[in-house]
Amino acid sequence: MPSNNHETAGSTAAAAPDCQLPELDADLLRRYDTSGPRYTSYPTAREFTPTFGEARLRHNAGLALARWQLPLSLYIHIPFCESPCFYCGCNRIITRDHAAADRYIGYVAREAALIAPLLRLHGAPGSRRAVRQLHLGGGTPNFLRPEQLSRLIEALSREFDLTASADRDYSVELDPRFLDPGFIPRLAQLGFNRASLGVQDFDPDVQRAVNRIQSVEQTLEAIAACRDNGFRSINVDLLYGLPRQTRDEFRRTLEAVIAVRPERLAIYGYAHLPLLFKAQRHIQATELPDPGTRLALLRLAIETLCGAGYRYIGLDHFALPSDDLALAQAQGGLHRNFMGYTTHAGCDLVGLGVSSISHIGESFSQNHRDLKHWEAALDAGWLPVWRGLELSLDDRVRADVIQQIMCRGAIDIREIEEKYGIDFVTYFAAALGTLAVLQEDRLLIRSGEHIRATARGRLLLRSIAMSFDRYLGSQRPAVPVAVPFSRVI
Fold first, then answer.
1. Whole-model pTM above 0.85?
2. FRET label pair with 422: which of 114, 262, 287, 344, CA 20 to 30 Å apart?
3. In this prediction, what percent of the chain has a pLDDT beyond 70?
């Protein structure tokens, strides 16, 4: 998952993006609103291949032993949800049987016991790498009962060093509709200090259209409980482009959220892909906002949040200036991986559970997406690898450039040349030809040894990054059933 993005002290000030409000040119955004990767990885998951299996993961983990003193990021996928949200494209299992989580936790424990020794120096028990970042995603992680959550963390702590360091980033995704009263206090007892709450939209009409009835009171109570239990950062997810959304009602949702000052917000654009996600077939396409309204909703979100003192981080992320995410961006330490923007560059990431993705050494690997095959592999004593990819030198060069674009809004040409021993202009001749068109549209400027997104280009970082993507335009992805990319806007 997260790729290395080592920063040089001399480049930070020059490359860090400023705090100016992104410029919204409606005609320009419509013209560039094509489909493209979100660049939570490069190469993207579409390029993963089934020829990369367990043996290749073990090999790459062995090569990564030189990194054994570096900390880890750990992601655990909890796939269970009690009720389907029609907009959702996540890998989830709809059930009200909470006993299913007991079996699942047992299999996660077995997977952890298989992968953890590969990340220790010669498998030595005393060389466990500290887990600086831990994230429970889903699905609905609070589908777990408090006692199940404790068993999960206990199983992980047997295999990994779950640090109590003050700079740890232990986070969880929460659905306020299904919160057990003891869940958040138990999270705090287990060391969690950050939460992300799904809201999407507070308007009852929109909620009925997407099958997610969630009151403002439920949400505010969950935020208050997190703060009462010492959580240092709260994120709220909203969606624009949902059925029946209007500018006036979305403003009310934004105002209700801003009133409680969450440290971060993510404003995602809804991607309507009913051929791939069955639940989305319940959404009437005729009820979706037209392109003009969709763009107006995005404009409203950006102007409202920036006017309320939030910093625009990039793509769809906002943070208060005091939050770790904003501080990392200002200091040049922002990173991007499958969990979105993060402050933890330089960590190997280990994904546990169905469909989870790992980035260990110079490789990506993804677990089986269905429960049956994931369990069968573990029953056989194998790591449940479905597909993956070993990064070539060219992949690593381009991944570094794309990381700089997505996180800094700029490319430090000299840094890339010195790090990889290349001549930037020669190596990226084709990309620079494409960038010339973007430069004519004033999406970016070239100044000395930097290529920098302008205020007009900050909403189109994906479009700039696509110029450096060698895989775009290839005839077909490695896996024929791969999910198509979402719209840029």
1. yes
2. 344
3. 90
